[in-house]
Write a structure and sequence with these properties.
102 residues
Length: 102
């Protein structure tokens, strides 16, 4: 008995997308392994322009502004005076050391 060779034809787009084996490239005639490009990583950055003027609600904008104001107030009213007190203590300690040991 003679075996019939299967007909060679170009795969449709859906067949090509679903097929995971080795195919023959039409343009070169070489066998190539199909690589799916559906798994890719998209990096998206977030800028101040996006936060303040992007497509977010006014409630979120107000929450962001209030959070930034709270952080600024903490730095100015808590960390600022604390640094001044620590600097003052350091100056006094330095002065006492220089006064008694030199």
């Amino acid at each position: 008995m003679e075996e019939k060779e299967p007909e060679v034809r170009v795969m449709s787009d859906s067949e090509s997308n679903d097929y995971d084996g080795i195919t023959i490239d039409e343009s070169t005639g070489r066998e190539e392994e199909k690589i799916k490009h559906t798994d890719h990583i998209v990096f998206q950055t977030l800028s101040w322009k996006d936060l303040l003027f992007g497509r977010i609600s006014w409630v979120n904008r107000i929450a962001i502004i209030l959070t930034l104001l709270a952080i600024a107030a903490f730095v100015i009213f808590v960390l600022g005076p604390l640094m001044l007190v620590l600097a003052g203590v350091g100056i006094v300690v330095w002065w006492v050391i220089n006064l008694f040991f030199h």
